Amino acid sequence: MRPHPFAIPAILACCLSFCHPAWADPQFRLLVLAAPNKYHYEYIPVARESFEQLGKLHAFEMTYATQLWALDGDLKRYSAIVLLNTSGEEFSEAQRRKFEEYVDGGGNVAIVHRAIIIPPGKWPWYEKLVGRSFTIHPKMQTAVVRTVDKAFPATFGVPERWIWSDEWYELANPHNVAIRPVLNVDERTYDPTRIWPGQVANGMGAEHPVSWYHHVGGRKARVFVSALGHDVNMYRDRHYLDHLYGGIWWAATGNGIAAP
């Protein structure tokens, strides 16, 4: 991935914000981790505003944190943890243990875009949690995203054929994890080989998932993953927010899966 041309603003690097909408009886509580890194930071205030609006609209409570020491608190109070462009590679050893305990105890997770990426072998448990391992991506391009699971709520608010521009992550499955694809990108609609000099990307063929879900921990914990969400403006897009909230809602509650 290419670094952003601007340095990470210090104010974002040290900011930790908590947002608790004043619902008398919220449906559920989320911890949204949105820690800045050299590739993603401009999205943080925009995503926070959008998540606050979602919380008001859908009656859930949220802690929106930009520092990883939010993981040091009581995680059991959260119905789901949302890793928003925040990968497990940034967790301390103690935070890894707490996060594993949370998931192994039935805690649920939504993993968004950059949060998919972790160096191979650095934390195999996390790679299995994600369900796929990042290998490379071509330059950002417009393509057609296809719905492959109409029964899953992360597809309810998006067109069956959706024109979208993103980094089309290429993925591997070194741990042989079974996932349920939700959205695929049609590689015939962009150039998978369009990449920076010295790098090689070839695409994944007809089955190229960009969103999926599965269960871990003896099916106790729900995991929703979306590889979409590179640009800050995406966090203002109605279809994208519908996609994210549908997956997060399922992760937090288990609700929404329609009969095929």
From TrEMBL:
Domain of life: Bacteria
Residue ranges of every copy of the ThuA-like domain listed in the record: 29-251
Entry keyword set: Signal
First and last residue of the signal peptide: 1-24
Keyword Signal in record: yes
Gene3D superfamilies: 3.40.50.880
UniProt key word Lipoprotein: no
Xref: SUPFAM superfamilies: Class I glutamine amidotransferase-like
Record-linked PANTHER family: GALACTOSE-BINDING DOMAIN-LIKE SUPERFAMILY PROTEIN, SECRETED GLYCOSYL HYDROLASE
Protein name: ThuA domain-containing protein
